Amino acid sequence: MTRGQARRILAPLLALILAAVMAVWIVPPLIQRLKSAFPPAFEHSPTGFAAATIARGAVLFPVQCARCHGATGRGDGPDAKALPVPPADLTAQHLWNHSDRELFGWLSQGIERPQGTVVMPGFADVLPESDLWALIDFLRAHNAGAVFGATGQWPHALLAPDFAATCAGGGRITLSDLKDKAALIVALRSDETDLPPLPEALAARLVVIALARDRQIEETGGLCVADDPAAWTAYAVIAGVDGESLGGMQFLADPQGWLRAVWKSGEPLAWSDPGALAARIEAFRGDRVSAEAGLPLQR
């Protein structure tokens, strides 16, 4: 066996051993220190998983994190091999095992080995708290999108990224305002300027909100239109697609804001079969997302 062959065989094994050492000797004591350093108010992000903060995190991640964690967050950045412990794969399931408080603590204070070796630097002196929360929102959204892009399912109960929209007549809403209606978020294709009217049978239980990229469209009929361009970015992230590929996708959120269904580009509009969509919405009432299933996200 040549040295090159030996290195190729041993490298993955050594990475697993280092990850196990980190899990046993570094993470548990660090979590205890973080719980003491940050009060319970830090347990959940204060952003409400907003589209604007996810989009802000998408801007910050390539600048602040990608050199170690890689452009796609898989721990394979250009500086990764020089680090004493391999960077975490931020697209893996383990991300959902950590509270927002833990993630905030690691981002702000960094991670050290028990003997003091820095595993990851902290950013408390570099970024304001709002940017640290934005990175946390982005990490969760990106993780969900990476899994959804590969499997067609999210790995965890996921909130619909929140944003404001203007409706016909000038009224403004956010997803968190919709306590008694479901929301269907439709990313318009580049050749679409409006949508067919919503059947009256659905109007009492559903709000349709259009996302348009880099252009203005009118609020007509029962249609609402997202005010913030960040909404387009955020929904592309959770869908695991680039901005060009989001057009035509539809996202159904229940009245509590949890995402329940997705229609991919090229599929018929969700209300092309009003009866089936109404039945799906009605089923939400008896199938609520539990507090445990929704953690660590909350709104």
UniProtKB/TrEMBL annotation:
Residue stretches making up the Cytochrome c domain: 52-143
Molecular function (Gene Ontology), one example: metal ion binding
Keywords: Heme, Iron, Metal-binding
InterPro entries: Cyt_c-like_dom, Cyt_c-like_dom_sf
KW Cell division (keyword) present: no
Entry protein name: Cytochrome c domain-containing protein
Organism encoding this protein: Hypericibacter terrae
Highest classification ranks of the organism: Bacteria, Pseudomonadati, Pseudomonadota, Alphaproteobacteria, Rhodospirillales
